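Problem statement: downstream parser choked on a complex file, so we are re-checking the raw output for the magnesium ion run. The parser issue turned out to be on our end (a line-ending mismatch), but while we're here, posting the original submission so the record is complete.
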Amino acid sequence: MSDGSKTEDDRMYGGAMHDDISEVLLDETTIAARVRELASDLATHLASTLPPDEPIVLVPVLTGSLVFTADLIRHLPNKMRIGVVTVSSYDGATTERRATALRGALPADLEGKHVVIVDDIFDTGHTMSLLDRELRHAGASGITSVVLLSKPARHEVDLRPDFSGFEIPDAFVVGYGLDYDGHYRNLPCIGILRPEAIK
Ligand code: 5GP
Ligand code: MG
């Protein structure tokens, strides 16, 4: 139903949610174009690394990578199983770090499989380090990592993602799967949250 008072921006960025964003860093169109490129680069890499038709195991990190994963996999031609993991690294309200830990089990039957880790953002890098270690320990024959965002100013580990969509400044961002206190994941763009919206 059409509401005459809504602007194009309200439709694109989620109306009231958009009022809490001080700056849109990446709009819907920019994200979509880059996700296609990432899928293409990843597919090319996998084709050059793996035997033809070798199935992969895609491991999305919940919950933040849910939207990114949904878009990415629809541009990937590879035969795949999907096994999600949950890693807790911050309390949901800030990026103030707590101990990074795996919550729940890893996907089954990883022995000899090529794993593709998908995460929303590579921040300190501790989440990716932990997963890399755990997945290798579980028998993965190889690991490729792909993240939508990366904050170079915050990296604390030597490991780097194999594929990264955008480098962003050191600011707390929400949208396109990323939350603040559980909200804003359904915002189609990625933006910086206004300080007033942070409790
Ligand atoms: P890392 O272990 O690399 O420090 O943290 C990665 C995780 O922290 C991401 O998967 C994400 O859940 C969370 N995170 C880091 N920076 C941000 C941010 O700017 N916004 C949101 N919503 N989550 C973030
Ligand atoms: Mg995460």
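For whoever reads this later: Residues 26 and 146 are 18 Å apart (CA to CA).
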